[in-house]
Amino acid sequence: MKPRGALVLGAVYVALVAGGLAVGHWFAGVVAFDVRPINEPQVHSMVMTATGMYLLTSALPFVPGAEIGLTLMVAFGARIVPLVYLSMVLALTIAFLVGRLIPARVTAAGFDCIGLTRARDMVLRIAPLDANERLEMLVAHAPRRFVPFLLRHRYIALGVAFNLPGNTLIGGGGGIALAAGMSGIFPAAAYLATVVLSIAPVPLLFLAFGASP
Fold first, then answer.
1. At what angle do helices 172-183 and 154-163 cross, to 10 degrees?
2. What is the pLDDT of residues 160-170, one digit of tens each?
3. Percent of the chain with pLDDT over 70
4. What are the pLDDT digits (tens) for 75-96?
5. Domain residue spans in the chain?
6. Closest by alpha carbon to 141, among 164, 169, 122?
7. C-alpha distances out from residue 183 to 78, 147, 179, Å
8. Which of 44, 87, 93, 100 is deepest in the core (most CB within 10 A)?
9. HEC readout, 126-149
């Protein structure tokens, strides 16, 4: 990568991370209010609005969707947990499908702009291949030993990535889902099953041990 490309990539990365964190901080402020009998009539409207905003923001790369979801559960209690869970599943599915729709030439052009010529060439080479052929080529040309391991165990790796603390630094849930869709190595049904299972532990733990506000 050329020095100029590295600087551009670094600046874009910092901007995306900062933007995602800013969205998360803003959202936390939106839902930070006490639920009391006097404001009960407004709670239902607030829950629906906040959930819709949560769905949209969690589908975006570098937005801390898990932290926002936890904020919602703390603010509104156990009654909103199923809604938060379903919203996250839908958000990660939307991001994945968007990734599937992005043409390979667009991805290749993006890599070319920042000087990642090898990545550009790889994207163009695997574009015509099916999922299994793509996986075989990626494993064969992976630069380090642990990358082939992660590719062969990609569903476990994906589930871990979704639950990794601080995963905003690697794209957040939305960015990880987008990249999974762009890769073309995750069949939609298998991806959805991975999402459904991998993001369930936190909501289940909150239902078991979390207190209502």
1. 160
2. 999 888 788 88
3. 79
4. 777 888 998 999 999 999 999 9
5. 1-31+38-213
6. 122
7. 36, 14, 6
8. 87
9. HCCCCHHHHHHHHHHHCCCCHHHH
DSSP 186: S
Site of tokens 């642990």: 146
Query: What single DSSP character describes residue 159?
Result: H
* Per-residue pLDDT reduced to its tens digit, 5-42: 566 667 766 777 777 667 666 666 655 555 555 555 66
- 204-210 long-range contacts (CB < 8 A, ≥24 apart) are 206/70, 206/73, 206/78, 206/81, 207/78, 207/81, 210/73, 210/74, 210/77, 210/78, 210/81
Q: What is the pTM of this model?
A: 0.83
| pLDDT at res. 27 | 64
pLDDT at 146: 79
Task: Find out whether 65 and 173 touch, Cβ atoms under 8 Å.
Answer: yes
Q: Which two tokens stand for residue 144?
A: 């380090």
The secondary structure of 46-110 as a DSSP string is HHHHHHHHHHHHHTSTT--HHHHHHHHHHHH-GGGHHHHHHHHHHHHHHHHHHHHHS-HHHHHHH
Per-residue pLDDT at 6: 61
What phi and psi values does residue 200 have, to the nearest 5 degrees? -75, -35
- CA-nearest of 108, 96, 87 to 176 is 96
